[in-house]
Amino acid sequence: MDRADGTGPAGTTGRPGRPRVMVVGGGVGGLATAVALHARGVPVGVLERSAAESGAGSGLTLWPNGVRALEAIGLGPAVREHSLPGGTAVIRTPSGRYLSRLDPGGALGDRGAVVAVHRAELTGILRAALPAGTVRAGVTVTGVRRDGRGRPVVVTDAGEETADVVIGADGLRSTVRDSLLPASRGPRYAGYTAWRMIVEAPGNPVDPREAGETMGRGERFGVVPLRDGRVYAFATARALEGDRSPDGERAELLRRFGRWHAPVPRLLAAAREKAILRHDIHDLPPLPRLARGRVALLGDAAHAMTPNLGQGANQALEDAVVIAALLADRPDPEEALAAYDAERRPRTRRVVARSRRAGRVAQWHRPAAVGLRETLLRLTPPSLALRAMAPILDWTPPTPRPTGSGRAGGNE
């Protein structure tokens, strides 16, 4: 509920006259939004459904656009301290034959760095940048409505809270999205499932200077070295939606990938069943808008995408920086959110579509198609493929503008 002292929802601070913002969802996108708003003096609180942080998790690859977003909110040095710089990126066949090698550092030039970080460490850095009490855990949001003055009201299992602005960063199955756009299409299955795990493999079987992905027939296995010898490993396979292994996911992974080239079998042997996460891969069909009135969506709630370009978290970080800049620079929250929609919807729609196309090719399973893919990978200079990512990677954070001066967004 609103406080009598004018500071807004519990846990928020900021300068008088700024919109009071409630963020629903305490993942990467929601926390980054709160940090960006707090840094600009906008009162903000975060509602997170989970009562405690999970010890399980996955790795994230932060591309130059995502790193720039973190630098814009003052967290670049902290993230670099907890991450491993990207080394050579390779693509191989299940037998171990190399199809492609790329040094992102050299190919990216002055575009910036690529780093790998544990998701839990990134969310920990973001939480630590917020004042105590900003994030309220164990709160389930069941809907969003408007009060008689047109302000959004967040309905939770503990009651109702009114804010000037509500930002839904509550993921693929977003409750805020259902309230904002009840007629919109829900997530669509991409046709394949994914496993993710953090492995502490004895003997460090993975070269920390090399990350890569192995492509088979409708199956893939990826390896991303992290700090301290840990490894983020992931796998994908064509499957019916909802299928699960009756004898455990580790057993399923060993059946599918146990005979692939080193270090895949050794990583699977070291993996703990409880550390393996399995999720079917979905993305979100284009939404007609990312904001309406004083409610907006960001991250997976707005544009969930398949992981094939490694841009899910990076696009959420961009969202956070842009929406915070607009809310800080424009006195009318509805105008700010309309500008956010105009800035972010076309860009993220293109990234979602491009990632879905890349996933289709990566999951090819017919022998002729797999052979064609391998030939194309061998013949295409890796630097050319990376340059094709320039419209995504060249994004720059918005520059604060005087009130009423127009767009505050970055570029492509």
Overview features:
6-stranded mixed beta sheet, 412 residues, 7-stranded mixed beta sheet, alpha/beta, globular, 14 helices
Summarize the structure.
By secondary structure, the protein is of the alpha/beta class. The protein has helices at residues 28-39, 64-72, 76-81, 104-108, 119-128, 175-180, 249-257, 264-270, 300-303, 312-329, 333-362, 367-379, 382-387, 390-393, and strands at 21-24, 44-48, 59-62, 84-85, 88-92, 98-102, 115-118, 135-137, 141-146, 152-156, 159-162, 165-168, 188-199, 210-215, 219-225, 231-238, 277-283, 291-292, 295-297.
**Unreliable parts:** 1-16, 402-409
Please provide the count of β strands.
19
Radius of gyration: 21 Å
pLDDT averaged over residues: 90
Q: Sketch the major β-sheet.
A: 7 strands, mixed
The end-to-end span amounts to 39 Å
Strand order of the largest sheet: 6-5-14-15-16-13-17
Principal-axis shape equals globular
* Share of helix, binned: 25-40%
Strand content: 15-25%
Structural class: alpha/beta
Number of helices: 14
Protein model, in words:
The longest helix is centred in the last third of the chain and has 30 residues. This protein has a seven-stranded mixed β-sheet, sandwiched between helices. A six-stranded mixed β-sheet has the order 8-2-1-12-19-18. It has 14 helices and 19 strands. Helix 1 runs parallel beside helix 5. It is an alpha/beta fold and 412 residues long.
